[in-house]
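Hi there,

I know you've been waiting on this one. I reran it after we fixed the sequence typo, so this is the corrected version. Both the input and the resulting structure follow.
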Amino acid sequence: MGGGSVGSSMADANELSCPICMNLMDDAFVAACGHQPFDLQDTTEHIEATDIKQHAESLEPENECFKKLKKFDVSTTAIDPPSSLVRGSCCHCGQSIQLRSYETPAPQAQKEKLAEFSDCADMTGLLQKTDCLRLGSQDTSRTGPRTVMEGTVLKKEETGYDSMKREGCQSGLEDFKSMLSSFMEYSQLKVIAELNNGVHVDSRNIVSSIELNKDEELFATAGMSRTVEVFHFSSVVNGTAVDHGPVAKISRESKLSCLSWNKHMNNQFAFSDYEGIVAVHDVATCQSMIQFNEHENRVWSIDFSHTEPHLLASGGDGRKVKVWSTKQEASVLTINMKANICAVKYDPGSSVYLAVGSADHNIYYYDSRNIRQVLHKLEGHRKSVSHVEFTSSNNLVSASIDSSLRLWDIEKRVPLRVFRGHLNSKNFVGLSSNGNLIGCGSETNEVVVYHKDFPRPAAWHSFDSPCAGHVGKNADLTFVSAVCWKRDSPVMLASNSRGIIKVLALPFQQI
């Protein structure tokens, strides 16, 4: 390198020049400038690198090498070089050199923000990754800055940092907190349509369940009014007030607790009631197809299988989960439990796996082929689990009357995140997810939306006053009782305990 290698004799060392800045070398290993050039092929022993900061004063500020290499140490590890080792060339002589990234301490502003979010590991990780973006790094696996050098030294205008500045991006973590706060600020959901024509508005008309059919052309509601009402979605969204009426209506003798559409048939849905009956109907004919009455107590939850069109499950106050087939009158499976059942949900990828939310504060994950042994038990809620909803093949979100939602890793049996910001201590307030977004009701008469990666609400809508934003604990006793997302969409349906139904959407910037 530059007229001699690290293996040269001590006698010839004084005649050698540093290949980085051309200063004469004091010996075979160290030049007056402090740089430590070496040849990987000739060096066989590890030589500890000299901290370049100790020699910074010996270089002129105008020196191009100093400008380009001030954040690097010359690596002298010949065997097993560190993962952050990069190759470059001196801007003066063009000689190849080996460089190791030098990580500077985190700025004080970052330390303060990390301390502020110390109770949230996900926030901390996000802050650290954003710091890498601030410095133009393409490698977010490290928290310190690293300039990637290939061949020649990069010019300042070629770095990601300057590119970000030219594109109008905010640099650094100085504004990151405000950016994050903007996303997490209580943003309003936009009202697309509202069913409030004087017929639904009644404190006795609590909507217990709202759900879209397979092709999302229809949606149905069921609740305390003892009726199932089916609406055409596009007519509600695009039509006049006259078009908002139900296209089908089914009356029952008992209060209704839950409704579930068949995942394979557009016109078939099932509902359950307070007398323990589970009934399957055809919406086209408004006729009952089959009715199951083995439950001896109120049924809280039912769900059709995603993979087997004829299977559905139900559970309630009788401490039993029942699996039914629309092809036969008797249940095909019964799971006896030790506490009342508030929620049942099929795994979207299988007809044999079931998640069960229980009044004993836990979620149970069963393989219906072996019901004697619980496959997974998810513990953490402090009160009854009112709803469960799958967000992916191995994740589900649960709602509890402890005023929290929890996102779970099913196989590891641990909560990935706890969501707080809504009020839920008495009623079933609804839960729905479209994958990234989670929606739930609140006993403040609001719809609350979370993003799965953030523990705090991302958006709100108050049924009391659409322009009021987040109302908080001062709302009356009316609560949002049912929610349902459209698949892969920022649009959702929601209803409250007075029977008011709304179609809501996130603002464009939140999508």
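Quick highlight: The CA atoms of residues 137 and 147 lie 7 Å apart.

Best,
R. S.
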